[in-house]
Structure to design on (706 residues):
């Protein structure tokens, strides 16, 4: 209240009374309080006065000549300038009727004659203060109204029973929202497509007392309008609902999202989103035990296009490539398998002329190869850009989870290595990531670990393949061949794990184990059969260099009881050529023990006559690569013939391995090679099966299939 008095000067008061005495008294009192005063002698003069001055408070005598106080009061109220001005009626008649009339005509208060001037002063002052407060209220209400009108939202007050009470529906929302009158309508009736959502939020707002926000949308034709409703619980068990059109905001958000996750030139996914997609695909694959392929694709000699035709053409070419990439990936049968949890095939550009395709949930690596070749094929057709025909090729590298890495980083790095390998291979080709490209690869590490576990668990076993002497038709020996039946991966080829065992030194304990097994087994067979059966054991060059080799061999002969003459060691040419002096000593020592020495895979290594003469050997084993095409390839035929002749001239035995057909057999026996080994007779078989072979053929003359 004080604020009002101090911020505003006291107003001019009009006193209208025909009693001059009263006017003088009133003026004196009011001026003493700080008001200014203007006087009128009757009602007509009072109305006249307000034309020229602007009083803000009125003291009107009810009984006046010309126009009475009631009439003046009505006149004032009819004038918008004085619609809210405080009017004090002075009445001589203290009857209820004139008091009622005074209020009806718009008076603010009344005072009766005879006037108590002290009370009069107070009453005027309080009237003025109340008027100020009223004015302030009106002003702030107006301000609020302007504010509310300026807000472009739909607002309504919802009663507990769901009926809309007050509302404000801005023009912009009239077309999409219930048109026309909302007052009294039920929410279901007013907003049929969104009422459920709003009602739920209203209920929650009433229950929790907290503001609720819900989003909803309205479709009209192809356009969608998005809304956000804020619901605040009111005090009367109803709620205030503010509905805002957020379509623009939504569209902007989408646009930002698109820019953040897409390549601006091609519209494909960008590096960030590719990485996200890959991570998602990996966790899905880890859960389901499936594979994920990363296909990295780089245009060959793209720089040349930019340099010759300009960047514009280069950009257009990239767009066209992106288009083909998408089409050829979408066309594929694989795409149909993308699952609803977002593991669809993703296509993106990493930058420059580098593109990436992710295949989630593939069953086998070959699927990725198929897609990659389809991509290469689609790129190989000419592009028509700016009236030019442009030919381009690409190099593709593929890495596959889980074989080539189990995180995005490693898979991308390995696909990159494979892609560069494809470039090295002359471009325009597809390469899978492999250990050869990156020797430090995980794969070999995993296999090494597996191998150690396999040794502990006793997963390895030895198979035996018969060696036949055509002259007697009997099995005269067998080659011991290591087998690894992996519980999950099946048989892993020795060609795959022996090199790794050599690299890691695991071959030493493993080879020792084979030697013991083979000796023990051969002893058992020799004890049961009259004719001596030889067993050939492969020695890797790594084993051959071990200082304690002689001891190990001696020990296995001793513990098994096998005669040394029944043991043959197969050594490759390269093993003895690494350190010829040491090899000569070692071989001599072995020969002294009566052990036989065979040169395995003969013909593929150094094949020098001089060393053949220096080394104490027993057998040359012709490599199977010469036998395979012996009847078709003249060079293979003449090499084989020469080896047989060489062996004969050196007084060595000769055995052919990889004999698969009757033609092989015929050719070899024609040339004088009578010892043979190969699928024609038998594949390598487990010990018990080999024993059956022995029993079957010991009675028969010829071990030759008719
Ligand atoms: P290798 O010593 O030359 O063994 C002969 C290979 O030829 C064996 O392959 C055998 O299964 C295969 N073979 C035999 N007959 C035929 C035929 O008619 N046609 C064809 N296509 N192949 C035939 P495997 O068992 O896969 O062994 C591969 C290589 O692994 C062996 O070649 C040998 O170098 C090495 N290896 C196997 N076991 C041992 C072992 O205990 N110690 C060492 N150090 N190396 C071993
Ligand atoms: Mg061998
Ligand atoms: Mg061989």
């Amino acid at each position: 209240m004080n604020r009002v008095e101090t911020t505003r000067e006291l107003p001019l008061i009009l006193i209208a009374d025909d009693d001059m005495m009263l006017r003088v008294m009133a003026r004196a009192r009011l001026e003493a309080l700080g008001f200014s005063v203007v006087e009128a002698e009757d009602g007509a003069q009072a109305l006249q006065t307000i034309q020229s001055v602007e009083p803000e408070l009125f003291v009107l005598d009810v009984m006046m000549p010309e126009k009475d106080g009631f009439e003046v009061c009505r006149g004032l109220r009819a004038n918008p300038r004085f619609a809210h001005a405080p009017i004090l009626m002075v009445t001589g008649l203290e009857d209820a009727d004139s008091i009622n009339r005074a209020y009806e005509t718009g008076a603010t208060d009344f005072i009766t004659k005879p006037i108590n001037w002290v009370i009069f002063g107070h009453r005027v002052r309080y009237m003025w203060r109340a008027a100020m407060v009223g004015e302030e209220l009106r002003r702030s209400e107006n301000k609020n109204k302007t504010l509310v009108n300026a807000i472009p939202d739909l607002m309504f007050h919802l009663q507990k029973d769901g009926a809309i009470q007050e509302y404000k529906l801005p023009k912009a929302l009239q077309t999409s929202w219930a048109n026309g009158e909302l007052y009294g309508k039920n929410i279901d009736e007013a907003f049929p497509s969104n009422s459920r959502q709003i009602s739920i939020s209203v209920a929650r707002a009433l229950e929790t007392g907290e503001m609720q926000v819900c989003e909803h949308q309205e479709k009209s034709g192809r356009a969608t309008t998005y809304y956000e409703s804020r619901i605040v619980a009111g005090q009367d068990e109803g709620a205030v609902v503010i509905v805002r059109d957020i379509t623009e905001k939504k569209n902007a958000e989408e646009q930002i999202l698109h820019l953040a996750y897409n390549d601006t030139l091609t519209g494909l996914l960008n590096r960030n989103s590719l990485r996200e997609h890959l991570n998602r695909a990996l966790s899905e694959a880890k859960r389901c035990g499936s594979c994920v392929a990363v296909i990295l694709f780089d245009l060959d000699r793209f720089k040349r296009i930019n340099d010759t035709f300009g960047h514009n053409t280069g950009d257009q070419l990239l767009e066209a490539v992106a288009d083909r990439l998408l089409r050829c990936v979408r066309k594929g049968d694989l795409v149909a398998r993308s699952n609803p949890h977002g593991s669809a095939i993703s296509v993106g550009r990493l930058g420059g002329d580098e593109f990436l395709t992710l295949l989630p949930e593939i069953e086998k690596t070959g699927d990725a190869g198929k897609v990659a070749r389809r991509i290469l094929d689609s790129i190989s057709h000419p592009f028509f850009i700016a009236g030019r025909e442009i030919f381009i090729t690409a190099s593709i590298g593929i890495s596959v989870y889980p074989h080539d890495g189990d995180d995005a980083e490693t898979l991308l790095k390995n696909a990159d290595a494979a892609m560069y390998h494809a470039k090295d291979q002359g471009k325009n080709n597809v390469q899978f990531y492999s250990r050869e490209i990156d020797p430090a690869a995980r794969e070999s590490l995993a296999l090494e670990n597996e191998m150690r576990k396999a040794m502990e668990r006793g997963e390895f076993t030895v198979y035996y393949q018969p060696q036949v002497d055509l002259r007697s038709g009997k099995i005269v020996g067998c080659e011991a061949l290591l087998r690894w039946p992996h519980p999950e991966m099946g048989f892993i080829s020795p060609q795959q794990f022996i090199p790794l065992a050599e690299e890691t030194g695991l071959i030493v304990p493993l080879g020792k184990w084979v030697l013991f097994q083979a000796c023990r087994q051969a002893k058992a067979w020799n004890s049961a059969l009259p004719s001596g059966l030889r067993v050939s054991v492969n020695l890797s060059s790594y084993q051959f260099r071990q200082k304690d080799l002689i001891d190990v061999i001696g020990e296995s002969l001793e513990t098994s009881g096998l005669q040394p003459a029944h043991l043959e060691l197969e050594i490759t040419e390269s093993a003895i050529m690494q350190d010829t002096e040491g090899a000569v000593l070692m071989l001599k020592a072995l020969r002294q023990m009566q052990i036989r020495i065979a040169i395995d895979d003969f013909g593929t290594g150094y094949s020098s006559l001089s060393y053949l003469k220096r080394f104490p050997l027993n057998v040359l084993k012709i490599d199977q690569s010469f036998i395979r095409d012996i009847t078709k390839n003249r060079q293979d035929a003449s090499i084989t013939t020469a080896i047989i002749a060489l062996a004969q001239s050196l007084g060595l035995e000769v055995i052919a391995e990889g004999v698969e057909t009757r033609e092989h057999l015929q050719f070899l026996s024609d040339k004088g090679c009578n010892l043979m080994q190969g699928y024609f007779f038998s594949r390598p078989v487990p010990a018990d099966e080999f024993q059956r072979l022995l029993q079957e053929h010991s009675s028969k003359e010829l071990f030759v299939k008719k």
Observations:
- The two ends are 127 Å apart (CA to CA).
- The chain has four domains: 3-148, 151-245, 260-433, 449-696.
- Residues 1-6, 333-342 have pLDDT under 50 and may be disordered.
- Residues 465, 481-482, 493-495, 498, 511, 514, 538-540, 570, 600-601, 624, 657-660, 677-679, 684 surround C2E (ligand 1) (CB under 6 Å).
